[in-house]
C-alpha cells in the first residue's frame, strides 16, 4: 500500500458549512493556492461533482488533471486520478467530524501523490504536506470568512 500524508484542522463552523465550501469547486482558485482552474465535468444525481478538471501549480508538482469524486454521506469525500499529464496517481479525502457540540468541525485531509517522473519519496511527502497544509489553512480561512465573502485583497494578490 502506498504511503500517504494526512493532517487535521479544526474550523469554527458546522460540518455542512465546511462541506459546502469543499463541494464548491468553482471557487477553489480563491482559497486553495495550488488550484489555478477548476471545472466540473460531471455531476451525480444530487448535483455533487463526480469528475472535476483541475489545473494545479504546487511548486514541484504542476499538472492539468481530472479527478473522480466519491461522496460518502455528508461528511466525507474522496477522490482518485482519472487522467493526468505528470501524475501516476492522486488519491485523497476530506473527512469531517463535528466537534464542540456541532459548532465546529475537525477536518482531516489525507493525500497520496505519485508522479510519472522519478522523485525521491521524501520530496513527494514534502510536496503532499505543503499541499495539505495550504489547503487546510485556506479552507479554514474561507469557511470562517462566511459564505459569499471574497478573499481579502492581500490574499488575492498573492495568487
Query: Termini distance?
Result: 35 Å
Hey, roughly how much beta strand do the residues contain? 35-45%
Helix content: 25-40%
Largest beta-sheet characterization: 7 strands, antiparallel
Query: Which strands sit side by side, in order, in the main sheet?
Result: 1-7-6-5-4-3-2
Q: Specify the CATH class.
A: Alpha Beta
Radius of gyration based on Cα positions: 15 Å
Structural class assignment: alpha+beta
- Tell me the number of strands: 7
CATH architecture: 2-Layer Sandwich
Can you write the helix and strand succession as a string? Answer: EHHEEEEEEHH
The stretches of 5 or more residues where confidence is low (pLDDT under 50) are: 152-159
Report the average pLDDT across residues: 85
CATH superfamily: START domain
Total of DSSP H or I helical runs spanning 4+ residues: 4
Shape: globular
Number of domains: 1
CATH fold naming: Alpha-D-Glucose-1,6-Bisphosphate, Chain A, domain 4
Amino acid at each position: 500500500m502506498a504511503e500517504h500524508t494526512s493532517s487535521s484542522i479544526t474550523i469554527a463552523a458546522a460540518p455542512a458549512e465546511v462541506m459546502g465550501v469543499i463541494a464548491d469547486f468553482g471557487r477553489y482558485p480563491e482559497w486553495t493556492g495550488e488550484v489555478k482552474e477548476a471545472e466540473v465535468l460531471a455531476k451525480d444525481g444530487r448535483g455533487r461533482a463526480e469528475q472535476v478538471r483541475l489545473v494545479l501549480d504546487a511548486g514541484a508538482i504542476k499538472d492539468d488533471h481530472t479527478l473522480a469524486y466519491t461522496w460518502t454521506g455528508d461528511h466525507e469525500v474522496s477522490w482518485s486520478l482519472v487522467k493526468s499529464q505528470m501524475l501516476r496517481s492522486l488519491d485523497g479525502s476530506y473527512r469531517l467530524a463535528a466537534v464542540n457540540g456541532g459548532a465546529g468541525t475537525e477536518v482531516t485531509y489525507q493525500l497520496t501523490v505519485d508522479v510519472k517522473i522519478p522523485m525521491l519519496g521524501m520530496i513527494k511527502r514534502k510536496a503532499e504536506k505543503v499541499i495539505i497544509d495550504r489547503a487546510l489553512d485556506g479552507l479554514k480561512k474561507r469557511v470562517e470568512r462566511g459564505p459569499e465573502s471574497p478573499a481579502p485583497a492581500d490574499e488575492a494578490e498573492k495568487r
